[in-house]
Amino acid sequence: NTSVNQGWSTPEEDILVKAIMKFGVGNWRAILDSGCLPGKNPAQMYLQTQRVLGQQSISEFTGLHVDIRAIGIINKSRTDVVRKNRLITNAGGKLTREELIKKLKQNKEKYEVPEQVWSTIELPNQDSITKLIMEKRFLLSTLEAEVAQVREQIMEVRVRLLFDACFIYEYSS
Q: Where is the Myb-like domain (predicted)?
């Protein structure tokens, strides 16, 4: 399930994906301190990371600078796994420390974005987010005005139909 969860807009998910590439999986404090996702907390980021990755456990990626969306696409097509709520689950026992270190190393080699890429990622700052919010509020007020006009037109049609129905009733009586 790589769809955006309620409470996460597509732009916010895009920012989360870039922030994880820049700071590493599980580095929620750095993401929070960057100010790129105001209003989000570590638990929300963790859950959305699971959804985008398509798997429940993210420990095998902890600290890695990866594109969770790309891994999620790969995970979505896997048939050799057990899933629960469309997320890959661990069908075996808990990983030993050695197994986890081995998986981290494999995932680093296979998926990690080069440092020259992740170190140059620019995340939106508070000013750009404030500007985006203001643009969205303006768009929302425009759409609300359009809805009000449509409701008014519907009411006019209803009144006209009611008037016509009364006229037909009186004329036929």
A: 8-53
Question: Rounded to the nearest 5 degrees, what angle is found at the Cα of 146, between the Cα atoms of 140 and 149?
Answer: 145
Residue 60 to residues 14, 22, 28, 37, 97, Cα–Cα distance (Å): 22, 17, 16, 24, 11
User: Does pTM top 0.90 for this prediction?
Assistant: no
The two structure tokens encoding residue 124: 């939106």
Digits of tens for pLDDT over the chain (173 positions)?
Answer: 444 455 898 999 999 999 999 999 999 999 999 999 988 999 999 999 999 999 999 999 999 999 999 999 999 999 999 999 889 998 778 889 999 999 999 999 999 999 999 999 999 876 666 777 778 888 888 899 999 999 999 999 998 888 888 877 777 76
- Non-local (6+) Cβ contacts of 70 within 8 A are 111
